[in-house]
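Saturday, quiet lab. Running sequence design on the structure tokens for the scaffold JK sent over.
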């Protein structure tokens, strides 16, 4: 297929509020940019700007340009008023990004939506107003955990309309594809996996050499990631093997509550909250831990599981959806969701049998499927179908 200009319209994307948000979408854009011109327009709500709008434009590579338009959060305590103003500002922010494209006389061949609903509204507008077709890539765990089913029939119907208007919908895992098809969502036709990287460069900080380091990289939303369950397991691990150390990267709505829980459980000497970090830090961090722990209740893919494996590290994970496609007896341990005792035993077992997990085998198992070249080729084939 000849080189096209693809417009990415993501719901999540790294920004000054959250450096890790939607990093997997940025990696998809980089993969697509190996073969095509890509522009990202991302309207982003912000509480940190003084003006109503702030436009940041950056050329990431010669073929990838990102336009982030921050729009100011409105202080109204009335939820309806606040959401209405935010939606209007979201639309204005998109128009500012679109105007930048038009001023540079850039023509778009295809829009690529990542996650409903608002970005798909933008794509629908472009389809109706400018005859630009669009595809959707869905990453949302709401189809797995019941959130989609809890939406009103009106909203579900409108979402299905947006899917029907797309040329194709792709998803990041077989589990997500199966569930969306069971829900009657149309055109869920292809799997486009996330891209896995590793950055072995050393971090400036040092890590203890005499401790067994468990690592966590997660948004600290406990209802999803169940970090509180991990902390309770860590208390039992500490009682039996004091060499255990848990390092947690991430931030979120429950960060303060989880730090208080760690204090209440007398874990402040072995649990360290490191806060939010950019992706390159995370990739290097994964080379310094001994084992990654995922204790989520549901995951559509789990990028960090695959990234840890790319670094040759074993993973202990709950059976939460995504990680099962990576983990076997040679690469880690699976436990049931919300099974603290199983998690405790898995962590203690890993500390005693860590050398049974061979880094080269772990890397080989994950590296064959998730390189940027391969994913870029998958998208290229999908774009060719969508533009027929």
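Result came back. Writing it out in full:
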């Amino acid at each position: 297929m000849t080189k096209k200009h693809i417009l990415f319209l993501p719901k999540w994307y790294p920004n000054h509020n959250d450096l890790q948000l939607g990093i997997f979408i940025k990696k998809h854009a980089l993969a697509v940019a190996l073969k095509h011109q890509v522009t990202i327009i991302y309207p982003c709500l912000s509480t940190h700007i003084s003006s109503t709008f702030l436009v940041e434009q950056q050329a990431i590579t010669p073929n990838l340009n990102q336009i982030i338009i921050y729009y100011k959060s409105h202080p109204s305590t009335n939820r309806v008023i606040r959401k209405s103003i935010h939606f209007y500002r979201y639309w204005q922010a998109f128009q500012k990004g679109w105007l930048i494209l038009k001023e540079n006389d850039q023509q778009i061949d295809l829009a690529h939506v990542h996650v409903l609903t608002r970005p798909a509204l933008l794509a629908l507008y472009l389809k109706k107003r400018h005859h630009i077709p669009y595809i959707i890539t869905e990453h949302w765990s709401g189809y797995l955990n019941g959130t989609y089913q809890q939406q009103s029939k009106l909203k579900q119907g409108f979402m299905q309309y947006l899917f029907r208007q797309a040329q194709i919908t792709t998803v990041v895992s077989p589990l997500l594809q199966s569930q969306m098809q069971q829900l009657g969502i149309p055109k869920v036709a292809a799997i486009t996996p996330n891209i896995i990287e590793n950055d072995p460069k050393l971090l400036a900080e040092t890590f203890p050499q005499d401790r067994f380091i468990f690592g966590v990289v997660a948004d600290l939303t406990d209802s999803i990631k169940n970090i509180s369950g991990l902390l309770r397991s860590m208390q039992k691990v500490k009682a039996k093997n004091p060499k255990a150390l848990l390092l947690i990267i991430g931030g979120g709505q429950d960060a303060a509550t989880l730090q208080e829980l760690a204090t209440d459980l007398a874990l402040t000497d072995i649990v360290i909250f490191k806060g939010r970090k950019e992706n390159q830090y995370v990739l290097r961090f994964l080379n310094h831990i001994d084992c990654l722990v995922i204790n989520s209740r549901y995951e559509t893919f789990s990028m960090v599981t695959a990234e840890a494996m790319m670094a040759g590290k074993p993973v202990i994970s709950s059976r939460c959806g995504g990680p099962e496609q990576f983990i076997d007896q040679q690469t880690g341990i699976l436990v049931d969701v919300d099974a603290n005792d199983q998690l405790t035993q898995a962590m203690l077992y890993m500390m005693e049998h860590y050398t049974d997990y061979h880094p080269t085998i772990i890397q080989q198992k994950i590296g064959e499927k998730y390189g940027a070249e391969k994913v870029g080729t998958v998208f290229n084939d999908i774009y060719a179908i969508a533009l027929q």
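Notes for JK: The radius of gyration is 22 Å. The mean pLDDT is 95. Ask whether to fix the surface positions before the next round.
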